[in-house]
Design a protein that fits this description.
Elements (H helix, E strand, L loop, with lengths): L2 H9 L7 H14 L2 E2 L4 E5 L2 H15 L14 E5 L2 H10 L20 H15 E3 L8 E5 L2 H13 L5 E5 L2 E6 L2 H11 L2 H50 L8 H12 L5 H7 L6 H16 L2
Antiparallel strand pairs: 1-2, 2-3, 4-5, 5-7, 6-7
Helix pairs in contact: 2-3, 2-5, 7-8, 8-11, 9-11, 10-11
Length: 298
Amino acid sequence: MSFSSDVKAELCRTALSRRCCAQAEAYGVLLYCGQFDARQVRITTESADFAARLPALFKKAFQMTFDRVPEEGAAKRIFTLTAADKLAALGESFGYHPAESLAHHINFAVLEEDHCRTAFFRGAFLAGGSVTDPSKRYHLELATPHRSVSRELRALMQEAGFSPKESCRKANYITYFKQSEAIEDFLTAIGAPLAAMELMNAKAEKDLRGSVNRRVNCDAANLDKAVEAAQSQIEAIYRLEERGMLEELPDKLKEAVDLRMAHPEMTLTQLAELCDPPVSKSAFNHRLRKLMELSRQP
């Protein structure tokens, strides 16, 4: 199953307790399904959980049964309502007259309560929503063929404290989120806290992996610098040797020469500890810089 399927399965476990919320959820389904007009309602879904919820949802909301239900085992599950009295009852429930209206709008009057508004969001997501696997990227969207509905959904979400964006794709109008925190909050609000937690875990894992990669890259860069510095120091010692200057060096510089040549792979801290007596890293580094300066003298 996809992450979207898992989210819808979790949402469908939400109890149908209040009739007003069932009507609000069904309203979201109708405005975000494939077709809702004077001729028919047509709801298509690949989610087995949503398909199982739909008959109970419409029964609770309107005491209504579908005129057509999916065939058993069908990949795409199609529910339809075509009876004129049923379509009229749906329109009356939301102050909508299909034969007279040219475009759909959200009737805010039926979504005044917070719990009804949340149920409406849930229905819209179940019918027209999707969310990307958070291990890949962050994206949640709701798609509807109704332009006014999409614009009004955004306004409704803003009232609820969300800040979605809008776009258009082919014949659909999209309301979407791309920030992980916004997706987490939205999923939690509509009844999918486990999915929100999974998203948070995926984000934490990606952040940790990124932190480790940055640390490894940083360590690799530091190692490269250390190797280059050691090579430069050894080359400087060879130049001093060619000039016959090593025997003239003070004892501390001779000790630095011997340790660097004997242990080219060691860090400055490790070499400083091998001195007799041990010295600080900065002190040993000062000796090596002195050797480099001497090697550059004419």
